[in-house]
Amino acid sequence: MRAGVAPDHPEKKWVADRLFDFYLKDPRVRFFGNVEIDTDISHAELAEWYDAVIYAVGASGDTRMGIPGEALPGCWAAREFVGFYNGHPDYRHLAFDFSCERALVVGNGNVALDVARILTMPVAELERTDIADHALAVLRHSAIRELVLLGRRGVEQAAFHNPELEELAHLEGVDVVIEGDALPLEDEAIPGHLHWETRRKVATLRQMAVMRHTHPANKRIVLRFMASPVELRGRGKVEQVLVARNRLEQNDRGVLAARPTDQQSRLNAGLVLRAIGYRGTPFPGLPFDDSRGVIRNIDGRVTDTQGWVHGTYVTGWIKRGCRGIIGSNKKCAGATVEKLIEDARSNRLPRASLDKDAVLTLIRQKKPEVVLRRDWLAIDHAEMDAGRNTGRPRVKKTDVASMLACAAAAR
Questions:
Q1: Which residues contact 65 (CB under 8 A, 6 or more apart)?
Q2: Could you report the per-residue pLDDT of 253-307, keeping only the tens digit for each?
Q3: Residue ranges, the chain, pLDDT below 70
Q4: What pLDDT shows up at residue 183?
Q5: Label partner for 234 (CA 20 to 30 A): which of 42, 202, 276, 321?
Q6: pLDDT tens digit string along 322-334?
Q7: Phi and psi of 21, rounded to 5°?
Q8: Cα 169 to the center of its chain, rounded Å
Q9: Which residues contact residue 314 at a Cβ distance below 8 angstroms, ignoring those fewer than 6 apart?
Q10: What would you report as the CA-atom Rg of the chain, rounded to the nearest whole angstrom?
Q11: Rounded Cα distance, 42 and 356, in Å
């Protein structure tokens, strides 16, 4: 909620905040923050202390483009930029260069649109959100005037969802330009075989292409379809992107795949953000499927070469791969919990070796700076108090030391 949801989407944060608050008030729920698996405690210890452990650790890696020049300074994962502007302590130190006039986002999913909005919307609007102060400071001096989003396939296969797409039409001082010939013309009927959500998407894009009037003083978001980067070029940093036009071909599984053609163009850009997918990373002490980027499991039960790792479960992207949204993950969590309940009723779960008080004692011994619910509430209230003084939802503390100091002062 803090590090992934865009700052200009407060309604999603508000709903999640209320849900967390409701469940953390339940005496059966305890919160241990500032505790890292494998550094402070191990999976083996958790498995011994509890009857069952569910890992909902998400995907902390990202997919690489695998093209020449990707290692040049100025090429980042969108995940890193999202963590930076949301104030994640692990990303607050990153130094993004916004001195160029054009930036390129590879991908056209919801994260790509989040990035596009943050880089083009007026700073005055961002100042009313909970975006991190260090991000505001650099965005105030951003020279970026144009953001190009490259989608490797066509309009019908675009990964973004309709609400996020429709938001672009309401950005103040920003023109949205649609490029590529995959968009049905104004007088052509939208193909009836498409899913209704795709039909709505095509209709919105067509309306944007026809109805929007560009203004020279406005910033621009360019949605370019059927295009992929094939090389990043520059002397010491990203300066230019070689872009190939794609064609669609059916692969062996009957899926339309993008294949680059010989038709190429050059695009000057000083910043490249790849938003082509998150990826799960190996988790200490658990079997990992490197080809899929997930903890090995069958229907949520963690499995190794010997079978089920008793009492150990997964849910979310680390269970099924990086696809789906919040609603998908809620359904996924329900399916995992059903397996846990089934195993509990069948007496298949191991028995915990410690009671709850002993667990807390051990965690405090291993991590004296453990953050309990009361500590989190102190941090939360301090951030919101600072926000009220500046007309914002909150002013985030973005380094662990200041968070711990705040909790200690409250105690």
A1: 106, 229, 274, 276
A2: 777 788 999 999 999 999 999 999 889 999 999 999 999 999 999 999 999 989 8
A3: 180-192, 211-213
A4: 66
A5: 276
A6: 887 778 889 999 9
A7: -60, -40
A8: 22
A9: 54, 55, 56, 294, 295, 297, 300, 302, 336
A10: 24
A11: 17
- What distances in angstroms separate CA 93 from CA 90, 104, 290, 359, 394, one per listed residue? 7, 22, 29, 34, 20
Q: What is the spatial distance between Cα 3 and Cα 77, in angstroms, rounded to a whole number? A: 15
**In degrees, to the nearest 5, what angle opens at C-alpha 62 toward C-alphas 232 and 287?**
140
Q: Where are the domains of the chain?
A: 61-278
